């Protein structure tokens, strides 16, 4: 009987840890904001913002209701002879994205990444400021890839992980009941 219990307990624990690990890897996400939503669209109707030198487009992250707090990698997809974009968090400069100048057209877009990953919540805004001078470009979109959670002491969220705890507790209670019953039987036999 003891052997059986050990096997059951091992199974329960294995299942619990497997589900928890699986739930953790599911927590990967990205969000895309279209440039043309936040700045004058390119005049021939291409789905991109025609960002002018010395001007900026600002994205309030709360525009996407599913935006979750986290550490994000910021990628700007753009074309044109622009070589530098300044990135601002809530109006404050946090870094620049450098790119090689290209021609204009949706087929000339390049994905260029801010080297610094940024801690963001839905309350934040990100601005893309176009290099001054004779530099133009279209901004197709800005992509935010969640690369990590914000390091805090978080209470386990309701959601995927919650049913796992419940299931584990139920299984452990069941195991407990079996043990109790077994002890009771043994006691009875000794009487
Ligand atoms: Ca676009």
List the helices and strands and how they pair.
Layout: H1 2-26, E1 30-34, H2 35-38, E2 49-51, E3 56-60, E4 70-79, E5 84-89, E6 92-98, E7 110-113, E8 118-120, E9 125-130, E10 137-148, H3 161-190
Antiparallel strand pairs: 1-10, 2-10, 3-9, 4-7, 4-8, 4-10, 5-6, 5-9
Helix pairs in contact: 1-3
Residues 34-36, 47-48, 140-141 line the site of calcium ion (CA).
Please identify the structural class as seen in this structure: alpha+beta
Unique bound compounds: calcium ion
Strand content: 25-35%
Unreliable stretches, pLDDT < 50, 5 or more residues?
21-26
Q: Based on the structure, what is the oligomeric state of the protein chains?
A: single chain
Order of helices and strands: HEHEEEEEEEEEH
Q: What general outline do the C-alpha atoms trace?
A: rod-shaped
From the N-terminal CA to the C-terminal CA, the straight-line distance is 20 Å
* CATH fold assignment of the largest domain: Jelly Rolls
Tally the beta strands.
Answer: 10
Query: Mean pLDDT across all residues, rounded?
Result: 84
Q: What is the overall number of helices?
A: 3
Give me the CATH architecture of the largest domain, please: Sandwich
Helix content: 25-40%
User: Any idea of the CATH class of the largest domain?
Assistant: Mainly Beta
Let me know the largest β-sheet.
6 strands, antiparallel
Rounded radius of gyration (Å): 27 Å
CATH superfamily of the largest domain: Galactose-binding domain-like
Total domain count: 2
